[in-house]
Amino acid sequence: MHISSVLLLAAGFAHARRVVQNWDITYVTTNRGLPQPAKRGVGVNGAFPLPVVEAELGDTLVLNVHNSLDQPTSLHAHGIFQRGTNYYDGVPLVTECGIAPGSNFSYEIPLKQAGTYWIHGHSREQNYDGLRTPLVIRDPKDSRRTDGEFLFAVEDWWPNTFQEVYPILTAANPTVSLFANPPHALINGVNANNTQSLQFTPGKTYRIRLVSMMSLPLWEFTIDGHEMQIVEVDGVRTKPSTVNVVRMSPAQRISVLVTAKESTSMNYQYHVTMFGDYLPAIAGVFPSVYNGTVVYSQGAPTFVPTEIATGFLDEIGMQSREYTPALVPDRSIYLNTTVGFMADGSTFESFNLVTYRDPLVPSVFSALTTGDMAINPITYGPQTNAHVFKYKEVIEMLLWNADTLPHVMHLHGHTFQIIERGFTNDTTGVLRNRVAQTGYSPLQRDTVFVPKKEYAVVRFRADNPGVWLMHCHFDWHMGMGMNMLFVEAPEMMPQVLKVPSRIADQCSAQGIPMQGNAAGNNAYNVSAAPNLPFLIANTTRVQ
Q1: Helix (H) or strand (E) holding 243
Q2: Which of 98, 150, 225, 390 has its CA at a distance of 20 to 30 angstroms from the CA of residue 126?
Q3: Model confidence at 279, in pLDDT bands (50, 70, 90)?
Q4: Which residues 6+ apart lie within 8 Å of 163 measured at CB?
Q5: Would you say 178 and 124 are in contact if contact means Cβ atoms under 8 Å apart?
Q6: Burial of 32 per CB tally in 10 Å (0-12, 13-18, 19+)
Q7: If pLDDT is split at 50, 70 and 90, which confidence band does 469 have?
Q8: Mapped to the 3 state alphabet, what secondary structure does 104-127 carry?
Q9: For residue range 488-513, what is the model confidence (pLDDT) as tens digits?
Q10: pTM: predicted TM-score of the whole model, two decimal places
């Protein structure tokens, strides 16, 4: 379970390496070694798991992709800001056109951030079907040294493909339960029931990188009899925070330091618990607890705890390591995460009852080709729910979830400060949990979990010219339309973004227009753009 090395191909001097991955994205029919029937997944070079990608700060990551699927594909480096390279963010019909079947494409991504990230498919929910892997970027100048490192990349593997799931999700009266066959867990691509042991040496300190590549469930990590210090959240260094359990939502990453005990008289267990109170429990099947051994001495007895630790992280009480006081917002936007239904009863997810549909013209091209019209949100189409921000404007988002299911909100191109949490039924404000206003450096992350009947307030600075997706990272909810666009400093984008010809070549090969508004018009008229009536709010939800 140690992170294995990948081939680093050097080009030029030591600090300008090109880390090259050659990926043929293919269908792979497999059960991943799990006790369930095989299904068609999306893998790389005919196999699972995908290779772990490792690099250093200052490298350039080159992903040479051949698409052997019968549908477009794309890759998103989750958590990477893509400053000046918005066109490599991997969102089809937003920042690119996708990679056409049978064609080749290369992402060349300058790595300007160190930390723990991951790469996943961003076309047609291919992430759900297995197109995902960790991305670890180390800083050679990091003064924090450890004696070893372990990786836990945890993912769920469902017995059905997203193509099979989607009609059931959106059906007016579904007759099939999606939870009849719950998912199994994989750790580092292997059946979680077959996890490897961790070898600890007394007194040594180890870094454990936790990467949640889940599409739906939550999970927790704990080691019996050991405390953990959180030192990184979603790629951002934090002030050390001591915990005995770490809870992870889909797409989140956390690094912890664990110092081994001085004695070798006992061995211990670690536990990975996959759960979700929004998923029905099945006795002996779900929630699922996967156990592994922390070995101090072969043959030593194993410590038996009275219970397995569980609990939420105190995000409001945590602080980022580099002091950044709470941003003062220039504007605040209210985003109501809702499920709604159409006249025929079919259901969709939405922000403020607007369910997302792709524009005809990729939004980055609309921003680059429409001149003064680029500052008007309607330019990007009625179903993208676009918001246009000025350069360096501080944006506050009130993420309101009065829904009966939780949501996991991810913003591309940024991290945001966690400012406040609370409950949607609070009428007095007594239950508000808010960061201190002075001398405090709020936790920054790029993905926040918002439980049902709760809200979160987050803030970020719009200092990254480009078009960025904001969405729920539950794959089911994203596929059902809980996405929207943030367009930042469109007047600066022609100077900042120099779109490579290979992007345009993919658009041309697929017949996708590259100029004009969402409908391809050089005017405000967007009548030809994909459009749906506003949804009707649904007060109950049946999955």
Answers
A1: strand 236-243
A2: 150
A3: confident
A4: 124
A5: no
A6: buried
A7: very high
A8: EEEEEEECCCCEEEEEEECCCCCC
A9: 999 999 999 999 999 999 999 999 99
A10: 0.94
- The rounded distance, in Å, linking the Cα atoms of 493 and 507 is 19
**Helices (H) then strands (E): counts for the chain:** 5, 33
Alpha carbons within 13 angstroms on the beta-carbon side of residue 464 total 22
**Both tokens assigned to 1:** 């379970």
Q: How far apart are CA 257 and CA 228, in angstroms?
A: 6
Q: List, in sequence order, every residue forming a beta bridge with 296; answer none if it has no partner.
A: none
H/E run at residue 334: strand 331-341
Structure tokens at 135: 């991305």
pLDDT band of 340, cuts 50, 70, 90: confident
Which residue is associated with the tokens 């030593």? 300
- Cis bond leading into 359, ω under 30°? no
Element containing residue 454 per DSSP (H, E): strand 454-462
Question: Cβ neighbours of residue 447 under 8 Å, at least 6 residues apart?
Answer: 234, 249, 250, 251, 252, 408, 409, 410, 473
| Interatomic CA distance for residues 506 and 501, integer angstroms | 9
**CA 191 from centre of chain:** 22
With contact defined as beta carbons under 8 Å apart, do 111 and 55 qualify?
yes
Coil vs helix vs strand at 462: strand
